[in-house]
Amino acid sequence: MDRITLKEQLEKYRTPYEEESAFIQDFIQLTEDPLAFNRERLAGHFTASSWIVNPDRTHTLLTLHKKLGRWLQLGGHADGNENLMEVALKEAEEESGLKNLRLVENSIFDLDKHIIPERPHVPEHFHYDVRFMIEADLTDKLVISNESVSLAWFTFDSVVDMIGYNPSILRMLEKTSKSEILL
């Protein structure tokens, strides 16, 4: 997947979720910016994430993010790499230590545009996060990266109780449950 393929997938991407469909056009427009895949674009830039689930679709792997202090899916900055699927897989491996990650589909699973708070030397900005569903085994050894405080598998039933209200996580959880019904 490169910039052109990403734009094509975004143009075809459909979602029943209003909050997600509201910013699809923003993602499409961002693909035209030469700096879109670089964190130096201070107005906002692409990031890529992995919604990691076990093959039975009963658990998801989340990380307690060190800088943000919240449980989130694994992911990170593109740092110039226009292949966001590759970025998502690389970040997932780096942040979890998992080696046997499997891409569920060769397409976008979810999109989220969210604000990142100001930090020293980094102004407040948007992340245009492109997410992919990845499978991993619950029994594989996890290794916590220096970007995380913790890393844990959560049952789908316990996600809300453990992480609180996070609309984008809840949306991915709901999408996963719906995709299982369709299988």
From TrEMBL:
Protein origin, superkingdom: Bacteria
Pfam family, one: NUDIX
Protein name: ADP-ribose pyrophosphatase YjhB, NUDIX family
Residue ranges constituting the Nudix hydrolase domain according to the UniProt record: 43-176
Organism: Algoriphagus ornithinivorans
UniProt-listed InterPro entries: NUDIX_hydrolase-like_dom_sf, NUDIX_hydrolase_dom
